[in-house]
Amino acid sequence: MLMSPRDCKENLAELDAIVIVPTFNNAGTIGTVMSSLIKYSSDILVVDDGCTDATSGILATFGFREISSDDALKPGADAIGGGKMIMKHPRNMGKGAALKNSLTAAARAGYRYAITLDADGQHFPSDIPAFVEAVKDDPEAVIVGSRNLESENMPGKNTFANRFSNFWYRLETGIRLEDTQSGFRMYPLKGMDYSKWYYTSLYEFELEAIVFAGWSGRTVKNIPVNVYYPPEEERVSHFRPLRDFTRISLLNTVLVLICLLYIWPRDFLRKLTWKNIRRFFDENLFHTEDGNLKLVVSLWLGSFVGLLPFYGYQLVLAVFLAHILRLNRLVAGLFSAISIPPAIPFIIYASYMTGCRLFGSSCVVAFEEISFSNLAGTVAEYVAGGFVFAAAGSTVCAFVFALMLMIFRRR
Question: Global pTM?
Fold first, then answer.
């Protein structure tokens, strides 16, 4: 059953939700947006981001009152008293700044949720009930409206930019979304301090916000929404493809670096508990459908490749060979990590010593004893010894592993 506009208003009031509309010189569409929006929400905050057109006059006809942005952003501020409000920026500061300031002001005024939509007419306020239903199912989620990217008049550059953004978002958070750039959203305000943790001030803020939400453990999900793009000659857009696409690319570069240096190690260490380790081995070794022989051969392959002098490529090589030979890729890849950094010097030394015994030559144990005349022989001894040592070491590992499987899998 579809939610009526009146029911939507009541539900938004029960949720302590406010609708936020950032605008910059959208006088041609703001009136149409407001005439529809006031049917669905009683509390509306428009952020006038330094408009120089007739936006203020149009909003005045709907009964909007102006509030001070300075007062609204003070801790414990009560400048937002509900109803239809305009928060003005003295100059154009960018969409990101407009959203940060309005979300911060709404949170400090006691609202629990904020729905944001654009003032250019591309979003339909009649989709707000869908956000209300979605947040009732998952009260802590950040909900992003997913547009139909094949809709009429959709700019080609928008489609490419969205797919590009979706790829990087999934890489950075592990969350798959169909639309990461839609401005039609519902943000939870409790426990999310938008004034401190977000640094960008333009369009890329919307990507940054959902990345930080994903990193904090919140659910981020799409719901389908309608979208309208007017013909190009009627369209008002402040998106500058070269500049804004460059800024988004730079932001993604920074976010990926944060992932490499902090987020991924943090998440790995959080999961590295004895319980998870035991469950991993239980599910992937002792209760897998693969037979003991296949598991033992997979481990032998992984540890053999891991002991070879192919540092930096063992994992890729082990998984590739396991795939070709139809072995257990997980086991092969896992045990290719046998040459962990602390063990590498010992493995190199053991490989070289093995090679010396194979060739019946004396071992060069000091760098000053190595010369161009004996360098080729030393390398040959190391490589040959590496293969023999890898074969012997992996065979011992496989034998021990076979005994473990016979004991634990029998249980």
Answer: 0.69
